[in-house]
Amino acid sequence: MKREHPTPRRPRPQATSSTTYSARRRVLVAALAALTVATATRATAAPAHLGDDATTAPVPNRAPTPRLHVSPRSGAAPLTVTLSARRSRDRDGDPLTFSWNFGDGTVAGGRTARDPAAASARLTHVYTTPGTYVAVVGVADASHVATASRTIVVEPPSAPAPPVGALDDGALEGFGATTAGGAGGRTIRVTEPTEAAVRAAFAEARSGGTIVSFDVAGPIVVTSRLPYLSGAFVTVEGNGATLIGSGIDPSAPLVEVSGHDVIVRNLRVRNGGDNLRAQGDGAYNVVFSHVSSTGAADDGISIGYGAHDVTVQWSFLAGNTRSLFVKYGATTDVSIHHTWVMKQWIRGPLVSSAVRADVRNVIVEDWAMWGVRFEADASGNVVSSLFDLGPYAHAIGGKTRSALRLIQSGPVFTAGNVYGGLAEHSVDGLATAPLDAPPVTTLPVADMEPLVRARAGCMPRDDVDQAYIDLHDGWNVAKELPLRLTAP
């Protein structure tokens, strides 16, 4: 068989570098031309679903959303009022200009801030003459102006503050002290030491104008969230009763105040998530007096989310992971006085956000990390208070230079404070005069200390409160570990 030989292929001519470059250049030019045409076509073509003649309409600029908070809303002349529009927003992200009319013939304005949380959106004004005033803030972007207003009632000047020596631990003092609570209202009695009886009383108190009187001491175990105290003008007279949150959801409070003009006193709250709260814009003119709050998984007392004009006085807090929380929203004007805070992890108190707090004649001792802290835009006074760190608390993590931490941007005035044990005096406030606050009878630490140690908390003290006081070592409290004691 004859073998076929394939026809030999003619070799291709080798391209020179000049011909290769020319060819590549032609390809590149063609590609760029095609890309330019495609891009121009996409840029000029209307979206198919809109039709050939449709165009995309610009989004119209929207007006700002104004928010105005004032505190206090009433009081005796001369009345210093803080006005804040920091919660105002512009949905388009435009810079905002704030203009103020205080209603008494004075105005301020033209302050611009890209960040509505900036200081220019918050100021103070002094009303010197009794009367009713409407304060207005105008919040403007480049195209719109929107307004918000609040009414402020200025009363005739009050009587002079009591003399320093006239110390009455039953009197109400501080920012929340103008309230009468439920005085003059009907009385709701808790006559059985059961959760159901407490739940029914709190639910009935929501209508306001009431005194909830505990006629039993307990202890009363609470296993689920109680009705909030949302009514106005309410007094809870604990009369030494004890509420224990064993089994309650760790995020739930034992007692929460969300209404205004509320007094809670002579009550023990133990082992909740937050033991006691005043929260929300509707919680103002609130007093917690002679309360014992111990063993909370989170806060012994929590004041936040817009609550204002609140007093914590003559109270005892121990074994809470976080003792006193004052933060968030438009929360401000909080007095903490003649109160004993001990064996905590942190927050004795924590004062944050833009809160103004008046802290005086307080004992803070044996923290497992730090004692008191002001942060963010907070401001206030820390006066004639005792910070005391023992060797055992120091051994489990208590920092000697963290008795008082001032890392805030607002002014803080400090004076007359005493540091005992291993606690070190490491910082002073930069304010040269006290910030305005309602009068509180204030004693030098040497005179205050024995009185607060003897009278703070729900009186007379029971065995559990005394056990916290008597325990010197072998205890621990941490971020997620409250110290919960039982009667010996």
* CATH homologous superfamily classification of the largest domain: Single-stranded right-handed beta-helix, Pectin lyase-like
Radius of gyration: 33 Å
* Strand percent estimate: 35-45%
- Report the total helices: 5
What share of the residues lie within helices? 10-25%
The coarse silhouette is: globular
Low-confidence stretches: 1-5, 10-23, 31-52, 111-119, 161-165
Mean pLDDT value: 87
Distance between the termini: 117 Å
Largest sheet: 16 strands, parallel
Count of spatially separate domains: 2
Structural class estimated from helices and strands: mainly beta
Quick one: how many beta strands? 31
CATH architecture of the largest domain: 3 Solenoid
CATH top level class name of the largest domain: Mainly Beta
Provide the CATH topology of the largest domain: Pectate Lyase C-like
Features of the shown structure:
488 residues; mainly beta; Immunoglobulin-like; Pectate Lyase C-like; 2 domains; 16-stranded parallel beta sheet; seven-stranded parallel beta sheet; 5 helices; 31 strands; 13% helix; disordered N terminus
SSE blueprint and pairings:
Blueprint: H1 17-44, E1 69-71, E2 74-76, E3 79-84, E4 96-101, E5 107-113, E6 122-127, E7 131-140, E8 145-155, E9 186-190, H2 195-205, E10 210-214, E11 220-221, E12 234-244, E13 253-257, E14 262-270, E15 274-279, E16 284-294, E17 299-304, E18 308-313, E19 316-318, E20 322-327, E21 332-337, E22 340-344, E23 350-351, E24 356-360, E25 363-367, E26 372-374, E27 379-383, E28 386-389, H3 391-395, E29 404-406, E30 412-415, E31 418-421, H4 445-455, H5 463-470
Parallel strand pairs: 2-8, 9-10, 10-12, 11-12, 12-14, 13-15, 14-16, 15-17, 16-18, 16-19, 17-20, 18-21, 19-22, 20-23, 21-24, 22-25, 23-26, 24-27, 25-28, 26-29, 27-30, 28-31
Antiparallel strand pairs: 1-3, 3-6, 4-5, 4-7, 7-8
